[in-house]
Amino acid sequence: MKDMLKGQVAIVTGGSSGMGEATAKLFASEGAVVVIGGSRVERAQRVADEITAAGGIARVYGPMDVSKKEQIHAVVNATLQEFGKIDILAAFAGKTFDGGDMSEEELLDKTIDVNLIGTYNTVFAVVPHMKERKSGKIIICSSNGAFNPTTPAYVYHMSKGACESLTVNLALDVAPLGIRVNCIKPGPIVTPFWDELMDSKDEQNKLLENIGKLEVPMGRPGTPEDVAGVALFFASELSSYVTGLCMYVAGGMGYVYSHGQSFFLSNMNKE
C-alpha cells in the first residue's frame, strides 16, 4: 500500500533520532506532512532535510524539549497555524539518565519530567484540537521493561509504565469522539538511546547482540524501522477499530518465553 497517510499532518516527538526518526521518515513516505520535534534543532533539521530530499514534506519549528511545556505548545501552535490541523501525534521523546553526579532526587525529577510529564503535556497539547475535529490518532511509546524487565531500571521503567496507564485511560475517554490512542512497547532496539548507558559502540553492539540471542525469541535486537512499521499501523486506517492497545514490539519478548535466563541477571550472578 502507498499513500496510507496522504493529506494528514503528524507531529513526531523524539523525531531527530532512533525510533522517532524512522517513524517520521516512514510517515512522510506515506504522504503525511511531518513536524519533527526534538530538543536539538540541528538534528531535527537534518531529518527534515532528508525527508524533503526524498520528496516528502517536513517542518521544524524550533526546539521541542518535552520537559519544557512552552516549547511543546509553540510547536503545536505553529503546526496549527500553518496547516490548520493535527491528525497524528507520535510521542517518542524519551530518555534515560546514567546518574553521574546527579543526586537521587535530581535523577528522579529529570527522568519523570521527560518520560512522564513531558508525554502527558505533549498529549494534552493536541487532545483539545482533536476533540474539536472528532478525529485523531495518538501513539505513545512505553518500554518492554516497564512490566517485563531484564534488569532493574526503577525510575525509567516506572515512568514508562505510567505511559501505559495514560494510554488506556485516554483511550477510554476519547473513543466516542473518534480519537484512537495506542501504545508501543519496544524491546531492545538499536538506537542512540544506548549512548547514555555506555560510550563504546563495540560494547553496545556486543551487549545488544547478546541480549538478542538470549532474551529475544526471534534471536536479534530490533531496529528503529521495526518500530516505525507498527507506528504506521496505529496511524493508518489499518487499525481503525483498535484503541487502548499496548503492543509489544520486541521480537517475542513480553509474551513468549525467551531462550534462556536473563542475560543481565546471569552476568550479575557470576559476580
Helix fraction bin: 40-55%
Per CATH, the architecture is 3-Layer(aba) Sandwich
- Alpha-carbon distance between the termini? 52 Å
* Main β sheet profile: 7 strands, parallel
User: How many H/I helical runs?
Assistant: 8
Protein structure class: alpha/beta
The tally of beta strands, per DSSP, is 7
Radius of gyration: 18 Å
- Shape, per Cα inertia axes: globular
- Beta-strand share of residues: 5-15%
Average pLDDT figure:
89
**CATH homologous superfamily classification:** NAD(P)-binding Rossmann-like Domain
**Which CATH class applies here?**
Alpha Beta
Order of helices and strands: EHEHEHEHEHEHHEH
CATH-assigned fold name? Rossmann fold
Indicate the topology.
Elements: E1 9-13, H1 18-29, E2 33-37, H2 41-53, E3 57-59, H3 69-83, E4 88-91, H4 104-133, E5 136-141, H5 154-174, E6 179-186, H6 201-215, H7 224-235, E7 246-249, H8 263-270
Parallel strand pairs: 1-2, 1-4, 2-3, 4-5, 5-6, 6-7
What's the short story on this structure?
With 271 residues, the chain is of the alpha/beta class.
Please, could you describe this protein's structure?
This protein has 271 residues and is of the alpha/beta class. The protein has one domain: Rossmann fold (3-Layer(aba) Sandwich). Helix 3 packs parallel to helix 4 and helix 4 packs parallel to helix 5. The protein is globular. The model has no long low-confidence stretch (mean pLDDT 89).
